[in-house]
Amino acid sequence: MVMDKLVSLCRRRGFLFQSSEIYGGLNGFWDYGPLGVELKRNVREAWWSDMVSRHNSLVCLENAPSPYEMTGLDCTIIMHPQVWKCSGHYDLFHDEMVDCAESKRRYRYDQVRGRWVEAKGERIFVATIAESDDESKEVEQRALKFFRLRAKDADQLRWDSDFITLPEVEGLDRVLGPDARQLGTLTEPREFNLMFKTYVGALGGEESVAFLRPETAQGIFVNFKNVVDSTRVRVPFGIAQVGKSFRNEITPRNFTFRSREFEQMEIEFFCHPKDSNRWYQYWRDRRMQWYTDLGLAGERLRLREHDSQELSHYSTGTADVEYAFPFLPPGEFGELEGIAHRGDFDLRSHMEGKLDPNTRPLEVEKGPDGQPVWRGSGKDLTYRDDLTGERYVPHVIEPSAGADRATLAFLCEAYTEDEVPDEKGKLQKRTVMRFHPRLAPLKAAVFPLVKKDGMPEIAKSIYTALNPHFPVFYDEKGAVGRRYRRQDEAGTPYCLTVDGQTLTDNTITIRERDSLAQRRIKIDDCVSELQRLLT
Ligand code: ATP
Question: What predicted TM-score, i.e. pTM, was given to this entire model?
């Protein structure tokens, strides 16, 4: 329910729109509107400035094993196809999907859920991909239809399992697919590569095949040597990158949570192998703290360490920062960011050739001819410590975050309904987006109480004074109460109002979004007061 309201607010107030909406939209693609673009920019900028540009490399931060440097990159989306062969994405980056012979639709195997039900002596599994709020209703309606029962006969349906996912169902012949009328129309699961394929140049043959990057990380690994050679960074140091990634997700869903085009904020942190576990702990906690500081505090946010079966083949430790999004069933969490200890997997793969995940220690995967299945670059990506003379392949800790998922979590967390008194003291419902001031799209709004007595002129001069410092909004239309409501929905932390008293003493009211507290400040102090409040 909350999700429906949030989705509608996002559209109504210009946070998010469906991509190409006037043509019916394109599944898995979203556009950020005027308020959304500012919100997402603030998320990205908070990340970049906290992790990179305002990182102090001279001091040892709390719980860090030592001081460290941070630097950035901006790589292309299309890269040499060999990058994806050596990284493992070409062979391994797939999801399992099932096709429906009847509806011709395709679903991600692990995202189809359903329940076993018995009626009229027959037991079937009714599957659905409906969102959690609607799945019980949807499954019941489809079971009634299948058994040709009326709604009033729903008590003839005997449900004999809770919701489970398709991989937990043995054999698919008793399954009623999410859009099917008959049983057993789903195929056995098959692998489906998630990379978008494209062609570079005009010829369009197999030699010109390339891929849209499914993650930004590989651009960092293949530039490791360039960065070391062109700067004076020394291990330990991190390289950060923000940019678009593309995955041909089989079932994009849950608003922007699983999109086909999205933005990542990734760090590859290079360190000495002997210190890597301590750096892994540091980055896990540092990244969790970042979300907490920006307002995702509380039990909806958690840090979950993967158990050994869940770890990727290259990883000796992975933890996810997760958020209990309102579209998930109670008790379930969705990943905001993964922090992985990747050892030397990536740098070695790009030097020597794709590593075989089944070997310990990792060795290059060989074909029947004894040659590497995918050749590496052959370039030396080792690091030489110029103080000790030691040469080694650095280990990597990777905090990999999604800008869109973070933005969605901040939107969900901010959405609040409460009641506030109107001008006549009567309680009215209001919707307020309680964004952290750093993330709020607008920092302040300036209003003249009424459109006369010189109030608009004073309010405009305040707007002009604030404008070089913060994104601020001027509004003189309609009743002041409605103007406040509009700013509450946009998440603007402060509203400044010019009223009758301003004309006599040069003070204005400043109203605080969350507490609704109002007090008077001098016009001349507006900029410094907002600066104080917002930092
Ligand atoms: P999931 O298991 O949810 O598909 P993942 O483990 O494959 O995610 P990673 O490869 O670790 O994701 O990507 C790092 C981050 O990129 C994720 O934590 C998430 O924030 C973001 N991300 C990944 N896929 C998507 C997507 N389809 N839409 C939006 N963000 C995504």
Answer: 0.86
